[in-house]
Design goal:
about 120 residues
Length: about 120
């Protein structure tokens, strides 16, 4: 049980490090806060809240994983290495793909609610 509790401490330390050191994660947290605020204002339904939660947490988790891969690559070498470049590009590409899906999900959730306000 002690090991399990320590794992939370390490995870929280990782999140804190990422929030202090990463620009992209700060932007994505801000966008998540905007989406949550929009969800409250537009009174999205419970299923839409579930989807929004998955979308926001997915983007943040992937960005954190991407940053950890980039940090690991930088520990291995700071010299230009084509393999390292491809690894970093692939990890960044995963975040971009999920972010495009998040954008589409946000449009599908919010656009009908916004249209309802337009006379």
């Amino acid at each position: 049980m002690k090991r399990f509790i320590k794992s939370f401490y390490y995870a929280i330390a990782g999140i804190q490090y990422h929030l202090k050191s990463g620009l992209n994660i700060k932007i994505q947290v801000l966008l998540g806060i905007i989406a949550i605020t929009l969800g409250i204002i537009l009174s999205i339904d419970p299923l839409e809240w579930v989807l929004l939660t998955i979308i926001i947490s997915g983007v943040l988790a992937l960005e954190t994983l991407n940053s950890s891969i980039e940090l690991l690559c930088d520990v291995v070498t700071l010299d230009h290495h084509e393999g390292i470049k491809k690894i970093k590009d692939l990890a960044a590409g995963a975040v971009l793909l999920f972010s495009f899906g998040a954008l589409i999900g946000g449009i599908l959730i919010f656009l009908p609610k916004i249209w309802a306000f337009i006379p």
